[in-house]
Batch of 2 targets.
Target 1
Amino acid sequence: MVREPRRLSRYIEVELRRVRLERGGRLILRDIDWTLSPAQRWVLAGANGAGKTQLMKLVAGAVWPTPTGRERRRYLWRGETHATPYSVSEEIAYIGAERQDRYERYGWNHTVEQIVGTGLYRTDIPLDPLSRQDRRKIATLLARLGLAALAMRRFLTLSYGERRLTLLARALAARPKLLLLDELTNGLDARNRAQALDWLNAARTRMPWVLSTHRVQDVPRSATHALVLARGAIVYRGPIARAPLERWLTRRPLPRSQRGVPVRGSGRAAPLTRLVRSSVYLAEQPVLEDISLELEAGQCWVVHGPNGSGKSTLLRTVYGDHAVAAGGRIERAGIQPGVPLEVFKRTVGLVAPHLQAEHPQELSVREVVQSGRHASIGLAERPTVADRRAAARTLQAFGLRSLADRPLRELSYGQMRRVLFARAVVGMPSLLLLDEAFAGLDAPTRHALMRETERLAERGVTLLIATHHKDEWPRCVTHELELDRGRARYSGLVRSSVHTGRGGGRS
């Protein structure tokens, strides 16, 4: 093996040979041969379920390869060779949706400064007060990533994109010798996405990294190599200049047989929801201020704005997860005082990142989809015949039948997102709330789900969609709400100068 220059020896080199990974009796990765050298920066591509996340976890030491007697792993660092990642695992930083979800699942609502501080000491939660020197280091790092204003904010009050950048700062605080970034740009607005890519492109950043992505525009220009997976096997490995990334990241939509569920009219009147001068506070911090909005049957609203502008909070307020502060009000057609909010929620479909954290990982795909008919997390009672039949139809239509008995912990991020779509649609909702619902999806799945969203609108379903990407605006969009720092900058009919068809991303 060719040794890297002495100046790069402080970084980790990883060699995998004939590595295989099985989970639940299924083959996830097969015959992986891959060498990550310190001078290289890799882009990892492939469809949802191809094995990208599991490969990163295997490199990081979070999962163990299936023993065959043929596999070999070598980690070279500081002139020493290790047969497993055990001795170097603390020097490898992994950032992905699963780690981000842990904070939601366990209620770790520390300040941004404290969370970045755990990177300095490589702990999960803060154990000791930060020193003055610690705070200076953290402040410098947050400033580099444009997060200085968030230092004292509580993690669970941040937007999805702000949380992702906070965890990047935490990883960098640990000064890792290898950085693994699983869909880093998910949930980032245009400004923060550019800032993250600028950091990866910086000439001074010699740290080797691996970045998985489903969007060709999120491939950093500093990437040197690419690895493409298909069904757990490597189909390309080599210089990025010769990599077929355009083919893998912008593939054509799925065939008609996999285009989604044929939703029938529910027979219910679509709900009319009104927010009147509504403000919402989280952890005593104002997140939405003086928002007025009326959703009428058949409308399609797109909510956009930078990270932290309040998009997710708005959708969760409409759904009923957050209360409106005194002085404002929210009205829902058919929901009078004394009527449980769950009655309204059963007429609403919701797809949002926090749902991936809230569902117990041992639940099966079938159980999650069935729960959509009751707007519950899991099933409090045995499913009825109607529940089972509706779930079976929806699983079939979404191409999830083969996954029906799989527990959530065995799904990829993109597969789980398809499950949440099926859960949202199974009850034939009158209102569909989509919060960054297409993030983390490969191009065919993204296109198929966007078509299904447009079909729902054609059948009279009211849509409220939060997104950072202009190419995710449906053709049927009728209205838009632009948020900035919790306030409405524009609310009304979609502006012709903004809605120009599907093109590049925007915040």
Target 2
Amino acid sequence: MQSTPLRRQNGIRALVALSVLLAIVAASGAGAAKAVRPDDGPVVGRLRMLTDHYRRVTWEYERAAHVKRTPTSFSYRHTSSRAYLSWTVESWTKRSYLAQREALGAIHRRLAVQLPQPPALRAPLFRRVTYNRRLALSLRRIYPGRVTRSFGSASAGSDHALLRLWQERSAAAAIAVAEHAVRRAEIASGLEQALLCIHSFEGAWNSNTGNGYYGGLQIDWQFMSLYGSEFVSRWGTADNWPVWAQLEAAARAHESGRGFTPWPNTARACGLL
């Protein structure tokens, strides 16, 4: 049986060991808390997500405009500074706005299509959602020429998520139009001017008077089917085609060897025959 002094020594040793153990546990807990870092929470994650979103949108519009994309070091992915991340979100938001304007301006010049006018950068949320939805639908009607009901009625978990959804869709639609909506810019400038002169004597771009001729160049079903069959399948008669498609069909006819003969009177008035 242990003596009283020995029991005291063992008790003291046990207390010392327990104190050391508690100190180790406390230190490891503090280290774990330090490793987690309070700043690496939902707010930082959301700011990084927003930066990624507006960077992608910027790059997509820059691709649609055929300009070099804005470089980045992706430093926002490796910092927890909320101030820096907020600044980065703001910077990419402005860049996406400017890239959108540049891309849509290029599409308008190339295809002579009317697109919705954008609201201010900091317009109310509902206006930005409405605009980006209208823009996406307008671009989709140019290419591929139709909008499905499911596409037009898309929803999201919140208004901000809905804004991001339509921003992404409008940017993707701009790329599709820029890459696939044919080639008004490639029509020789002299030919384009000649066709525009013919148009000035023919009718409005949406003209449908019931005489069997349609659009700004007054073309009939045979002409439409021969030189714009894909446009007929998308939009019907030429009065529903965008201007670029009407010019494209006319350019195809000209290049096939027909020249300006489909418009004998108005071509003569323009000095083309």
